[in-house]
C-alpha cells in the first residue's frame, strides 16, 4: 500500500508540531500485546492485528501511538514535554470494511501538570489552526463529566465499576442502566441459579479456564447484586438528561450547571469545563460557536478520561473524523507504575485531509 502524498502531508504537519515546541519521536510498529490487553482486555483483539514471535511472545501491529509514547515518557521524560510523530497504524475494520485498515497518523502530545485546561486549549487551538483551510467542523466533549456522574450514583461499587468499564460501549452501557434500574426482567436462568441452594451441586465436570472457586465468587457477586436496590428513576432521568446535552459551549455549560444541582458529583468536572472554555477563548477559539456534546467520544479508544474533541468533514459524511484527540491522565498512571502526569494530545489523518481537500476544491 502506497502512502506517498499522505506521508508528505504528515511530514508537513509534524514540522508544524515541531515549530510549536514538540520533539519528534518514533515507536516500533510491533508493540507488546500484553500492555494493550492489560489496558483493554481481550476485546482489543477485535480491533488489532495480533501475531506471535518465538522470542518476544504475543505482539500487535501498532494500533495507535499514544500508548507507546506514554510508556516512553513515563520511563523518564522531562517535564513539561511535547512530542510529535508520524507513521502507520493498523486497525481491523470488520464493522466498516470499506475503511482503510492501514493509514498514516500525525500526532502531537503534551505532558504538562502546570495548567491542564490551558494544555487542552493549546492542543485544540493548534489543530484548529492546522485544519482551518479544510472543510471540517469541530466537536468537543468531556468524558470526565460523564464518569463523575456515574461515580456519584447511589449504588454499589461493583455496579459503578461495570458502568464505567462499558462507558465506551453505549448500547452495553444502556443495557446495564436498564438492568440496574430494575427495568429489565431477570433472565429465567439467573432466577433459577439464585434460587438454588448450591448451583454447582450435580454439575457436569468443569471445562474451560475458570475454576470452581472463581465460579463460586461469581455466584456470590450475583447474589449481592440481586439484593442491591435499583438505581432510582430520578437518577436515571438526570443521567439521561446529561447524555442529551448537545449545545454550543456557553449553553452547554449553563445546562450542565443546572444539572449539577441534582448531580452534585459532576460539579468539579463542570467547572474544569468552564476554565477550559476560558482558555480556548484566550487562544482565539470562537467558543460561542463551538459545539459541545456530553456523549461525544464514547466510541473512541478507552484511555480518554477528560476533554475530547474531533474534526469531521462537512463534505464527506461517509468518512471517519479527520482528527481526534483528548485528555488521558489515568493512562499515565497505569503505564507509569502509579506515577501520574496530566497529558493531552491528538492525531490528524493526512489521507482523509487529502480526500476532503479534493472534494472541497
From TrEMBL:
GO terms for cellular component: cytoplasm. Keywords: Glycosyltransferase, Transferase. The keyword Glycosyltransferase applies. L-histidine binds at residues 64-66, 91, 105, 109, 298, 303-304. Pfam families: tRNA-synt_His (PF13393). Transmembrane segments: none annotated. Residues 9-271 form the Aminoacyl-transfer RNA synthetases class-II family profile domain. GO terms for molecular function: glycosyltransferase activity; histidine-tRNA ligase activity. One of its GO terms (biological process) is histidyl-tRNA aminoacylation. Homodimer. This is Histidine--tRNA ligase. It comes from Roseivivax sediminis. The lineage of its organism: Bacteria, Pseudomonadati, Pseudomonadota, Alphaproteobacteria, Rhodobacterales.
